[in-house]
From TrEMBL:
Compartment(s) of residence: Cell membrane
Keyword vocabulary terms for this entry: Cell membrane, Membrane, Transmembrane, Transmembrane helix
Domain Major facilitator superfamily (MFS) profile intervals: 16-392
Short name of one Pfam family: MFS_1
Membrane topology of the entry: Multi-pass membrane protein
Record has Cell membrane as a keyword: yes
Identification of the protein by name: DHA1 family inner membrane transport protein
Natural source organism: Saccharopolyspora antimicrobica
């Protein structure tokens, strides 16, 4: 099944992808910057730090639940209009805590922020894959989704630095300004002719929630549960097992973040060549890296090396996960664009719980917990690699459908 393509020059295509990357990066920073300023926010709003931590939860829930809902509600609207609308809502929601000093308003605004991000990212994937040839869809996805990886590496330290200098509200003002810039360049660059999926919500949902799609969404969940089972408790591991303290912990984490970004960018090429194989190799590589990390935990050099390998394998899968979900959804690809983020956020929530239970055994145990879950992921990846997109008449195709390369056996 073909994907309707917008006829753009290579230069214009690159500019659109760069704009979408920048938008996802800014939104990713907005999601994470609160983590580095919880103490400042808690003190200023006179709440406890654990209470302030629910701002992170509210954002994740907004993204996981609100993103798909808004995507469904806007399924028939022009993509450029939807992107612009999501950015306007995002800007207003980030202005709310700056202008209104009420914690409940802040909490609600964070949920709205997350929902707007979920909508923006889903539509951005649809735009990105519709302006490139089908055989380059994975690479388009990798450019856009790399905004998340780069924000993960830079969002917390940048937000913390700005918050310490200008106050936590200064960080939100910076996000508002950057979001306004994204709004301008996105509105200028994204073609107005691009429309979203046909068939309405019911027609899209029939394919978007098919068992084959749900199976790959389960793989999304497993991959990120594995990641956060270990990653949530990596600092205690580095401190108590490896003997790393002070600024060196930040160096190790920054290196891990860079590996994430490299994995995201390069993962698009692998996804285009063989998405199913990429997922098998990525989950297996993650399991091996975590197992080795467990055994070499006392050696800082080997720990640094294994963290790079772990970060690379963990994020090299992300474009393939997105591509598999969309391709297996067939005509429901437009709605399906928003579903991986929901599955990922469930994994992000489950990982710390499982890792915390393992931590009661030993500081190294979360690494083994993550490894075991990654092994489960390898089995799921192998099983799902044989799934094939639905065979649907060409006339029923929608803009969100992305066929996978013919070189892949799935």
């Amino acid at each position: 099944m073909s994907t309707p393509q917008a006829t753009l020059s290579q230069g214009r295509t690159n500019l659109v992808l760069a704009a979408l990357f920048f938008g996802v990066f800014v939104m990713g920073c907005a999601e994470l910057l609160v983590v580095g300023m919880l103490d400042l926010i808690a003190t200023d709003l006179e709440v406890s730090i654990p209470t302030a931590g629910t701002l992170v939860t509210a954002y994740a829930l907004g993204l996981a639940i609100g993103g798909p809902v808004l995507t469904a509600l806007t399924i028939k609207l022009a993509r450029r209009a939807v992107l612009a609308g999501a950015l306007v809502v995002f800007i207003l929601a980030n202005l709310a805590p700056v202008l209104i000093t009420d914690y409940l308003v802040f909490l609600v605004a964070r949920g709205i922020d997350g929902a707007a991000q979920g909508l923006f990212v889903a539509v951005a994937f649809g735009v990105g894959t519709s302006i490139v040839p089908p055989e380059r869809a994975g690479r388009a996805i990798s450019v856009i989704i790399s905004g998340v990886a780069v924000s993960a590496a830079l969002g917390v330290p940048l937000g913390t630095a700005i918050g310490q200098t200008l106050g936590w509200r200064g960080s939100f003002i910076a996000i508002v300004v950057l979001s306004a810039i994204v709004l301008i360049i996105t509105s200028a660059l994204v073609p107005s002719a691009l429309s979203t999926g046909g068939g309405g919500v019911a027609g899209q949902a029939k394919y978007a929630f098919a068992p084959r799609v749900l199976a790959v969404l389960v793989l999304n969940l497993v991959v990120f549960t594995s990641l956060y089972t270990a990653l949530t408790y990596i600092v205690p591991f580095l401190q108590e097992v490896t003997g790393i303290t002070g600024a060196m912990i930040s160096v190790f984490l920054f290196a891990f973040g860079l590996a994430n970004a490299v994995g995201s960018f390069s993962g698009g090429w692998f996804a285009d060549k063989n998405a199913g194989g990429t997922l098998i190799g990525g989950t297996a590589g993650t399991a091996v890296a975590l197992l080795v990390l467990y055994f070499v935990g006392a050696n800082p050099v080997l720990v640094a090396l294994m963290m790079l390998v772990w970060g690379l394998f963990a994020f090299i899968m992300v474009p393939a996960l997105q591509l598999r979900v969309v391709s297996l959804a067939g005509p429901g690809g437009e709605l399906a664009q928003s579903l991986p983020a929901s599955a990922i956020n469930v994994g992000v929530a489950l990982g710390p719980i499982i890792g915390g239970a393992a931590l009661s055994s030993s500081t190294s145990a979360p690494m083994i917990g993550g490894m075991i879950i990654a092994l489960v992921g390898t089995v799921v990846a192998l099983a799902t690699s044989y799934l094939k997109p639905p065979v649907v008449a060409e006339a029923t195709g929608s803009a969100g459908v992305v066929p996978e390369p013919t070189t892949e056996h799935a």
